[in-house]
Design brief:
The structure is a single chain. This protein is α/β, with parallel strands linked by helices and about 260 residues long. It is globular, with a radius of gyration of 17 Å. It contains eight helices and nine strands. Helix 5 runs parallel beside helix 8 and helix 7 packs parallel to helix 8. The strands form two sheets. The chain has a seven-stranded mixed beta sheet with strand order 3-2-1-4-7-5-8, with helices on both faces. A two-stranded parallel sheet has the order 6-9. InterPro entries: DPM1-like, Glyco_trans_2-like, Nucleotide-diphossugar_trans.
Length: about 260
């Protein structure tokens, strides 16, 4: 069966990477489609995407937003877009090549062939597979996942990973309007929610390579959100059990493009 596959990439000032990223994903086997969600990049990222839509008219899509509204809201918007359009598998990926597009195939196979509901491109499932990061940032990321597991019990070694594949049933089962966090903690909250709802998750080993072009969007505020957000998630799970979403209608936060 030829599943419909959509890769969602949020962008803000990624003009140095976006053209190469689009071409690389378009060249992969499996007929992946791309949805770029651009938060009003002043560097012209969206213009590059629009120009390339002539080359890939059926497979390259764009949603433009009017400001920097946060990673989590971009993905939620993309998830709703994907569900409305009937995609079977939906992926999260960064624009800066820290996630190798070739690994999309491994993430897809973990779900489509091995039967998992969600797969995660994991930096820590076979050791520490990170290239070009300062040791301080490697330790911060690694121990963030240890902290998440200690507080929540989430049995995932790379809890903050942002390279993922969802079967549509996961995104349908999560009440996307109740996802609270928009920064670093968003990635943790999505995994924690999927796990609490009983979906089967697999970590797929990847090598994470720090960006060589453009500027990182990491900040102290984003990290702080994650530290306190994890405690909130655990407390919420105790007093408000997670249930599969039964809502059939999916409202978009911005118009289709």
């Amino acid at each position: 069966m030829d599943h419909r596959k959509l890769v969602i990439i949020p962008t803000y000032n990624e003009i140095e990477n976006i053209s190469d990223m689009i071409q690389t994903v378009m060249d992969l086997e499996g007929n992946f489609e791309l949805l770029i969600i651009d938060d009003g990049s002043p560097d012209g990222t969206a213009k590059v995407v629009i120009d390339l839509q002539d080359k890939f008219p059926e497979r390259l899509h764009l949603v433009q937003r009017k400001g920097k509204l946060g990673l989590g809201t971009a993905y939620i918007n993309g998830f709703k877009w994907a569900l409305r359009k009937g995609y079977d598998y939906i992926f999260e990926m960064d624009a800066d090549f820290s996630h190798n597009p070739n690994d999309l195939i491994s993430l897809y196979k973990a779900c489509a062939e091995e039967g998992f509901d969600m797969s995660i491109g994991s930096r820590y499932i076979t050791g520490v597979n990170v290239v070009n990061w300062p040791m301080g940032r490697v330790l911060m990321s690694y121990f963030a996942s240890v902290y998440v597991k200690f507080i929540t019990g989430l049995p995932i070694k790379d809890a903050t990973a942002g390279f993922k594949c969802y079967h549509k049933s996961v995104l349908q089962g999560i009440n996307l309007d109740e996802i609270r966090f928009i920064g670093y903690a968003f990635q943790i909250e999505m995994k924690f929610t999927a796990w609490k709802l009983g979906f089967q998750i697999k970590e797929v080993p990847i090598i994470f390579t720090d960006r060589t072009k453009g500027t990182s969007k990491m900040s102290k505020g984003i990290f702080k959100e994650a530290v306190f957000g994890v405690i909130w998630m655990k407390v919420k799970s105790i007093f408000s059990p997670y249930r599969i979403n039964q809502t059939e209608s999916i409202e978009l936060d911005s118009p289709l493009k």
